[in-house]
Amino acid sequence: MTHLRTRDFGIGLVAAMALTACAYRGEPAESPPPGSAVAAAADSSQGARTYAAECAGCHGATAQGTLNGQVPALAGQHRSVLMKQLRDYREGERWDARMEGLMQEHRFATDAQLDGVAAFLAGMNMAPAGGGPGGETAIRARGERVFANSCATCHGARAQGSEPRIVPRLAGQQYMYLRRQLHDAVDGRRPNFPRDHIARLATLDADDIDGLAEYLSELSP
Ligand code: HEC
Ligand code: HEC
């Protein structure tokens, strides 16, 4: 199992690099599996079409993100959360060259152009990303404990987040992405986090963070 996961991480990295290159040329990066976003693009939904044309190259046909932690899963995320993050990239309040570049392009200048794609993604099913390369029980139990004590009041008992309160769903998110966000927040690389959120994350040690990422990435809400 460890071998399989390690190999999958490698493939994810190579695939992500290839997909990133394709996305800049605006080409679909891979042949669409049935029922995927790219296949759905054939239907009349404008959000599905925008997703297939502008986003699937990096986020994947089923919007599950990449194992290497660069690209997050978006499927099943709350519409309000997706909209906030997209606005933050557009306005320079969240930093990432790839997303900022995309959002500053003319075609995403207004919220109306983003709302359809956010609604489409919120309606997609997310399959839990399924843990990190270690996957040890002890670290997962630690993460579950920390989550229940310090995070569940806002993120929800099953990390399902909240549409009206604009709190992200964390359940099922990519393991490496969660780890990176938690470290980035504390290191000051995620300016759109509320200050008290950063302070809260700064109290976590490396094992807490690994445990949280393990627990959350395996969870279905
Ligand atoms: C060139 C690759 C690329 C393309 C194309 C792309 N993304 Fe992203 N996206 C990323 C990366 C990388 C991140 C993580 C950035 C970070 O760490 O802040 C991201 C992050 C996001 C996030 C934040 C998710 C979260 O959990 O906070 C949202 C929302 C998002 N993208 C939506 C979209 C949408 C919608 C499109 C199409 C209109 C799109 N992306 C196109 C690479 C891409
Ligand atoms: C007071 C409410 C609150 C608490 C408590 C809280 N969070 Fe959050 N969290 C939020 C909100 C709101 C956001 C969205 C911030 C933004 O707009 O980018 C967020 C965002 C996040 C993200 C980014 C998700 C993404 O898709 O990029 C992670 C990861 C996260 N929180 C983890 C945690 C962990 C782990 C804990 C417990 C140690 C925790 N949070 C406690 C409210 C909270």
Q: List low-confidence stretches.
A: 1-32, 38-44
State the order of secondary-structure elements, H for helix, E for strand.
Answer: HHHHHHHHHHHH
Largest sheet: none
Give the DSSP E fraction (strand runs of 2 or more residues): under 5%
Structure overview:
The protein has 221 residues and is mainly α. The protein folds into two domains: 121 residues, Cytochrome c-like domain (Cytochrome Bc1 Complex, Chain D, domain 2); 81 residues, Cytochrome c-like domain (Cytochrome Bc1 Complex, Chain D, domain 2, Orthogonal Bundle). Helix content is 55%, strand content 0%. It has twelve helices and no strands. The structure holds heme C (2 copies). One heme C (HEC) binds next to helix 1, helix 4, helix 5 and helix 6.
In short:
This protein has helices spanning 2-24, 37-40, 46-54, 56-59, 79-90, 97-104, 112-122, 137-150, 152-155, 175-186, 195-202, 206-217.
Secondary-structure map with pairings?
Elements (H helix, E strand, L loop, with lengths): L1 H23 L12 H4 L5 H9 L1 H4 L19 H12 L6 H8 L7 H11 L14 H14 L1 H4 L19 H12 L8 H8 L3 H12 L4
Helix pairs in contact: 3-7, 5-6, 5-7, 8-12, 10-11, 10-12
Bound molecules: heme C (2 copies).
Sum up the structure in keywords:
221 residues, mainly alpha, Cytochrome Bc1 Complex, Chain D, domain 2, 2 domains, 12 helices, globular, disordered N terminus, binds heme C
